[in-house]
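User: I've been going back and forth on whether these two constructs are worth ordering. Before I decide, could you fold them both?

Assistant: Sure. I'll take them in the order you sent them. The first construct and its structure tokens:
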Amino acid sequence: SRLTRYALQAQIGQSFYKSQDFDKTDASLIDGWALAVGRWTSPRALWESEWIEHWRGIPQIIERKKHRHYVNASGHEAFVCFHQQLYNERNAEVYCWSPRNLSTQLLAAIRDMGHRHGFRVLTLALPDSSAKLLPPDTTADPNEQVIATVKV
């Protein structure tokens, strides 16, 4: 499948969801879950890098805001992380672990949470199948990645 980065506006949504701050680090929480948003690497590798501060010696990276949430959007469970971009503090990279692919309810919740955190633009890396849910004003980044799997 092909993965493309998309930029879309954060905005207040008209959806029902529950969200709570999340700070648990145990990787077993995502066993069997995929990276529904942001999959440039394996779900486990990104999960572990989320909690380990590799960049402690570089203040500009450490000072970036990070928001982590457990979300339930109409029964769609997910762990969602917002990372403030390094050179544009009003934009955020979004990562989302979930047992299901992105849904319209979860997308509305992500956009709403991003807006409430003060971000204007959210960047999401998505497979083509999930990109169909994005609104027409979304812009695609020319950066894409092709992921191939082989059954053995």
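The second construct, handled the same way:
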Amino acid sequence: MRLGNALVSGVVAGVSRADLLRRGGRSGVALLLAGPALAVAPAKARAATSDNDLAYARLFVACELLACDFYRRALGSRHFDSGSLEALRGSLYDERKHLHAVGEILRAAGQAPAKPGDIDFSYPARAFASRTAIAALGARLETLFRGAYLGAVAGFDAGDLKALAARIAASEAQHLSVFAGEAGGERIGPAFPRPLTIDQASDQLDRFTA
């Protein structure tokens, strides 16, 4: 599934990037940005959720699906010792919790979030060939996730979703610290990490979709 040309260009067949994020469609972004066409019964009662917040939720579902896919591959690579495997398993557990939380935003609005297998992810050549390569990729992905959630602290409309984004960003920063050290970088990052806009995050996410 190709996300990117639609999101990079901003316009597909007369539909703007914002429209795709708000409503979904049946093009390359159909499952990631699925809108009312995939409506289901709400998971729980919630005040009306803005189109902007639903767009963020769809983006984060895709981010978390990518995160889970990455951690599963890293765990299966056989390049890590028992201590590192425990950290990877803990991070995968966290990402699954995040996936459930952001998916609930859509379910509560009567929409079905994308699920494992809906998006085909791709990675750089030999990304899982060594421990160092995996760590470098992990740091890159976690930097994306942290920046996306930090951006959503300002980007979300609903106050409770702003708080959720801040909490998940803190979790992703912990994951990033582990990989940064593994890759030979600094475990302690910048005092003020850079947030990403929804467009910036979607553009970066596109680099990992087939």
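Notes on the second construct follow. Strands lie at 11-12, 15-16. The chain has a mean pLDDT of 81.
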